[in-house]
Amino acid sequence: MVLSLLLLLLLVCSTRANQFLGTVMTYYPGNTNADGSVTVQLLYKLNFETCTMLTWECLSGNCGTESVVMRKGYESNGEWCQMEGISTRNVPSNAPFQLWLNGGDWIDNITNGIVNWRAVTLVELRNRSDIGKANTSPQTTILPDVRVPSNCQRNFNLLAFDPDGDTIRCRYGNTSLSECNPCTPPSVLSISPSCSLSFSPTSDEGPYAVQVVMEDFPNQNISLTQTNGTKTFLTPNDAISKIPVQFVLWVDPPVPSCTEGLYLPNFLPPTPNNRAQFFTIVNRAIVINIKAEAIISTISELLYSGPSTLIQNSTGAGQFSLTWTPSQAEEGGSFPICFVVKANYNLNIYNSDLRCVIVTVGNNPTTTTTLPTTGSSGMYVVGLSVKVSSSSQQSKDEILYYLQQARYYLSYYGLPNVTINIVSYVQH
Ligand SMILES: *[C@@H]1O[C@H](CO)[C@@H](O)[C@H](O)[C@H]1NC(C)=O
Ligand SMILES: *[C@@H]1O[C@H](CO)[C@@H](O)[C@H](O)[C@H]1NC(C)=O
Ligand SMILES: *[C@@H]1O[C@H](CO)[C@@H](O)[C@H](O)[C@H]1NC(C)=O
Ligand SMILES: *[C@@H]1O[C@H](CO)[C@@H](O)[C@H](O)[C@H]1NC(C)=O
Ligand SMILES: *[C@@H]1O[C@H](CO)[C@@H](O)[C@H](O)[C@H]1NC(C)=O
Ligand SMILES: *[C@@H]1O[C@H](CO)[C@@H](O)[C@H](O)[C@H]1NC(C)=O
Ligand SMILES: *[C@@H]1O[C@H](CO)[C@@H](O)[C@H](O)[C@H]1NC(C)=O
């Protein structure tokens, strides 16, 4: 009896093991060693119904050797688990190579007919003539699933940030390039090159696999120089690297009203705008405050995707904060964070809009400053008159919050530790 129960459990576990909900991969080039070998750091997210670890395999080129650390990211109550993989690869030269995930199954009954998962990353590390170093991929992330009621129009603007300042374009994967297996796009979602996905009302409910390829293009003609001296030329129409952005779009039953703030949660200040950029430095925590309301449904959860060291706190009804303290290893990088607020009404789940921000970790200001930091004789008080323009009315606390953000930005350029306060303010 006990034995058969155990077997049944094992069976259930194994049939549920392959419940893929997409992936994202990005990379940062590392050092070039004296022997011409190169290191690269690849950061990836793996989304499954239950926490699952996988490593990427070599598809083409010489992918060298790798060491991987896997960490658990956010796990939503019974819906999904996101794992973060940090892979450091050492490759013998800076020649391009491709990695892929290929094999198991997405969740059951995907409306656009996708069963097998496949995702491809093209890692380009040759020396770029315009920036005098190797390329960094676009930086982005996504939630494992994104929900929309079938009767509401909605746009999902993917985060698309390029640390090299390249132009980023998105497209659906191409089956003949083996970018997915197959790449049948979701009929209900149209994609624009600027990485905006537009959903129009439909009667075809259910889960759709969304398999996007994000690429960076140079802004001018450039050359790529390989370790052995060979040069390759690229024009602004040639992609440098490519990364996959894959997730599930759930088209849910219709909602009585598409107006945000009733059933669908609505973001309120000081929630940052989509694609907002934050600055901080190593060991200095950045706090992202998120506030949402829904009059009819009940807000239950903040769902997010970001560095696995991100800490969530709920600070009251519909109020959340995400706190992240970058470590030395993250210095100089830009890290994406995406979030939605989830609400429940009866047995229905309603998601807010998707919002994503990017946090840039600046280099620590050098400590050669001669300004004394203690004692009244070393303190300076500086008065500034500042004009803040905004499309909606902001409270004093919100304005202070934006000024604090400006301070983070300035500390990136070397502003020493200052305390900011509002002495008086006038609203027009
Ligand atoms: C998938 O569809 C089949 C056939 O319609 C059904 O039996 C099964 O329960 C569905 N699975 C899920 C997870 O909805
Ligand atoms: C890349 O090229 C620049 C000159 O364009 C050079 O200064 C730099 O050392 C090169 N980097 C590597 C890793 O070869
Ligand atoms: C897919 O890639 C092939 C080979 O490069 C190309 O000929 C074709 O036009 C592409 N299809 C689409 C829809 O872009
Ligand atoms: C860029 O390269 C293309 C193809 O090699 C060439 O036709 C074009 O004139 C170049 N553009 C500039 C601005 O150099
Ligand atoms: C450099 O390497 C590439 C491929 O790895 C090869 O095609 C090319 O011929 C090599 N160039 C030289 C000058 O050896
Ligand atoms: C979470 O928020 C509450 C209420 O503001 C606060 O008391 C608590 O210290 C916070 N916890 C963390 C870990 O920041
Ligand atoms: C900046 O100053 C405040 C107040 O003096 C202090 O609490 C904080 O630790 C300082 N931060 C840094 C990074 O030095």
TrEMBL record:
Keywords recorded for this protein, A-Z: Signal
Secretion signal span: 1-17
Descriptive protein name: Fibronectin type-III domain-containing protein
Organism listed in the record: Channa argus (Northern snakehead)
Native organism taxonomy: Eukaryota, Metazoa, Chordata, Craniata, Vertebrata
